[in-house]
């Protein structure tokens, strides 16, 4: 199929699961009831994506409060009671983060329940997302390794173990979210891509890396406004990614100031073209989505384009998110008709 659609990862949670329209929303249930509700929400997210015309669906990250800490909760060697304030994304904003106090080790499987539940209830392509090594170490304090790069590779080994298990569960695409790549561009070439290679070693599923300009929250919106008339962070990192063993690169295009001709730097890769803006409540029209796809097709082979959302939708109103997903599905259909 030409222009198969997908999402960057997270979708809003139902109000019966967590407080709506916010990040880090506390769960409304606990224990076995929470476990069951997470699976119910996962199934709902899958079916809503199917109804919207999304071809490669995700679990919507319904089982995690946060895209990074949803993984960290399953790791030994991290003290969540020993929190320190740390600047995130090169001090774009401050956050209280847990501390690595010992050797890192998985407690067990991380996303098995939701991945298997989603796989059992859809015949479409299935994507599961996890935080990338660089973004993890930018969101946690270190009191053990004494070397941020060494700690990143330790996390990469854990990510690899879960990724390979997810592939065995029938997941088709494993995506690593690396918003930190747009902040620490030199480190991407120095060690960031190699850390991703460690995370995908032996992986039978497709591998993807998602590099965006962040959720539609004030700190990110303010940062974007400081970046000038053109956002050229991608220019510094795409050549290294083009040479990498990663199969797919997910990026932000809709309503961004990224020069679209930079997409030429990803020659040979599948490009997940962000055609839905997650920083506004305005729902795109199918024609607007198709226009983004058409612009990307000037620089990327059309067989390599996968229309997507710019970023996760976790903090968004559910009705708006669903409207945007339908626009994505409908817009891809328009683009198929044009390029068929």
Describe the structure.
The protein is α/β, with parallel strands linked by helices and 340 residues long. It has a single domain (31-339), classed as TIM Barrel (Alpha-Beta Barrel). 38% of the residues lie in helices and 20% in strands. The protein contains ten helices and ten strands. The protein has helices at 31-52, 69-72, 112-120, 133-137, 148-168, 185-200, 218-225, 233-242, 286-296, 318-339, and strands at 56-58, 75-88, 93-106, 125-131, 141-142, 173-177, 206-211, 248-252, 270-276, 305-309. Strands 1-4-6-7-8-9-10 form a seven-stranded parallel sheet. Helix 9 links the parallel strand 9 and strand 10. Helix 6 packs parallel to helix 8. The protein is globular. The model has no long low-confidence stretch (mean pLDDT 94).
Kindly give the count of domains. 1
Distance between the termini: 10 Å
How many β strands by DSSP? 10
Instruction: Examine the coordinates and then state which fold CATH places here, giving the name of the CATH topology.
Output: TIM Barrel
Number of helices: 10
With strands numbered from the N-terminus, the spatial order across the biggest sheet is 1-4-6-7-8-9-10
Shape: globular
CATH architecture: Alpha-Beta Barrel
What percentage of the residues does DSSP assign to strands (E)? 15-25%
SS-derived structural category: alpha/beta
Radius of gyration, CA atoms, in whole angstroms: 19 Å
- Sheet with most strands: 7 strands, parallel
Series of H and E elements: HEHEEHEHEHEHEHHEEHEH
